[in-house]
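hey all, quick one before standup. I had two proteins in the batch that finished overnight and I want to keep them in one place so we stop losing track of which output belongs to which input. First protein below, input sequence then structure tokens straight from the run.
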Amino acid sequence: MIPSTDSPAVLIAALSGRALAACARRGGYRPLVADMFGDLDTRDLAEASETVPGSLTHGFAKDTLSAALDRLAAGRHVIGVVVGSGFEDRPGLLRCIAARHALLGNPAAVVTEIKNPFRFAETCALAGVPHPEVRLDQPREGIWLRKRIGGAGGMHIAASTRRDTARRGRYFQRRVAGQPVSAAFLAAGGRCRVLGLSRQWAEPAPRRPFRYGGSSRPAPLSDARAGELSDAVARLVSLTGLRGLNSADFLVREDGFDMLEVNPRPGATLDIFADAEGALFRMHLDACKGVLPDTIPVWPHAAAAAAFVYAPADITLPPIFPWPVWTADRQAPGSWVPKGAPLCTVLAETSDAEAAERLVRHRAAEILAHAEGAA
């Protein structure tokens, strides 16, 4: 659905707002985007956009982002703001946004509760959902991970060593085995509807061994195990105030599973679950009002995959750089991309999840060779 000039406008705030902007536009809304990158396709999708300074680890400054959202909303009838990544550990910023615009998603209190690792562990226990042990002090026995409270994208996770000490904002989680799987779900009034399950993988980097790499759907699980994960999400949601589109991350084994965390926002799998008709964005808004859909969106392909491409070294894109149609988050010609920063996203849609995953990996290698050769 192509929005008209009479269509409602919606603010989008995220470290990268392109996927949400595409989803909103397909849903018939006019996206107004404040994000950190200002990519070419984000600008094309948005009615208006602003590039806001920030960092992948610490998000946006409150005053800078608030001013950008106010400028985007000025003179327009805006229904509210949808937030993406960059707010999990910033409840104060969420409250600031909600004081000025209708927040179309989880409020600060819910985000704080769900991203507190100890409150989350307690909620999992009450719901009967398996969850790895967490603690504040440095464990002396067993294998543990060191994590930052409110971190996202896997860049805040590392193996714990005996040199680690207790530190503000840090906690330890017992390491468990399993295949990473994520459940995308809509929540409203203590109920939920799981849209689908995706397989996830990491793209390790020095000191960032769990950096997010990509995802593919559907996840290779039996119907019985998929049903168990969906049931776990439903039991957890029944004890929370979650609303709108969210995701839950699991580690799945032959003999069971553990729920690791919930991302209280539209997440990194938005590209592979977005439908051609834009129903997903409208479902998110409906769920924020307490209404869940009777049916889930129909995807144009049986399987899809998306992967982040990170710069292996400092790269300066040439003045002319022809981005392939299967890329997204396309940076402007001449952009300098520092080592380890996202270069773009690559996409694939096929009839088979494994084939889609192989294709995005091939395309990631192709775009890197092209960018490094042109630089």
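OK second protein, same deal, sequence then tokens:
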Amino acid sequence: MIRKRKIIECMLCLILSACMVGPDYERPQFFDNEAIEKALELKVGQFDESVVDPFLFQDETLNNLFLKALKSAPDIRSAYARIEQAHALLQSNIASVFPSFDIGGGYNYKKTGRNMGTLFDENIYQAGLSVAWEVDLFGQKRRAIEAGSAKEREMIAALKNIQVSLISDVATTYLNLRMNEKLCKESRADLKIQQALYDLTLDKYHSGLSNAIELNQARYQLENVRASIPKLEEQIELNKNALALLVGVLPGQLDRELNQDKNNLITKTFKYDLTSLNELSVDVVYNRPDVMAAEEQLIGQNAAVGQAVAEMLPSVNLSAFFGFESLKFPKLFHNHSYAYGYEPTINAPVFHFGALYQNLMLQKAIKKEQQIYYEQVLLQAINEIKNALISLNKEFLRYKALDEAWQKMDEAAQLARDKYKSGLIDYFVVLDAEERRISAQANLTTSAAQLYKNVIAFYRAIGGSSLHQTDEDGSSR
């Protein structure tokens, strides 16, 4: 009993005196927060996430597409699988800290040779519990747990980044679809107008009130508008197929759902207040999923440096056996067959031809590379947020100007058509007005789509919205 107690006391001393070698992680400060705030022109205020959250655009069809994509898209399912892998690895690393227990039995027969002097046959039967434990004296296993935890968090951040990217891609493709649908609808309406103008010009030509030049110009305008429709119809089908790919279904399976919604983002007037876009905290940069993933990579590599240091230091292993041994099987489980043993060992690396040191240098070099990569991702994040802010604000100004231009040009074109019917002006004035009207109409539609696309780009740049999260089954919460 005294010997057992001493062993237990020694083990407790080893555990209590255990330490973790290697550097503890500290976030590198590449850029001062005030400098980031100045670069992004951030100001104190309350940021309204609903302005840029695609789930709050009040487009039911788009929301359904988001939920389907988050549930069924192959990239999402692959990301969840990677999280499961990282979690399993982490649990394996945690388990390695504790002793391992194995139950086993065996039989050993030995017959000595003549040169051993005494000839005898030996039968040994054994059954019991084996215990093995490598004491984590210098934190090698705990560093592995630290690296495993960082890897799991990295995979979770990667999932969030995939979700944000997928939502952005679905929204952008959906906007392209609705934009092309609206352009196609406008072209069909324009075709009717140009057909009426051509018929009117043809009548005037037969009456001697118009010449061949005007007639040919009218026919040119009619066919030019007609030619734009097949290309737009092609783009519509391509957009639908692209959405099917993003959602993870076969081409054509979304057609019924997409054809039902006539009142969508492009048909609505943009009404969101963009004045709060700069009212962001500088933390939005560090909380971007790709930035978080890059930092977790750095944390994991920092732990790998600690593991490399620990490999250069002594290791302590404890093993023990508790069970039964007997020369005869019928007496194996008798009281007098009870046996136990223990074997503490210590190993210290002495000479490995520099392999352990070079491994430490390797891990430090990889850590240096990860630091540079983290800095690069931070710079990219700041740059994307800045560009998204500029593009969104400038496109909003452009959209308002184009809306005013379209209204005035539509009125001017209508007036020109009326005067042409009355014979007050020639066709070339109408042609010029129609070309300007069609151009203004297309510019407004594409600007409306681009404005929403820039909203989506800003949503992506800030790493998504905290207002919306999804579970693995794609359900909203």
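Flagging for whoever picks this up: The mean pLDDT is 88. The chain has eleven helices and four strands.
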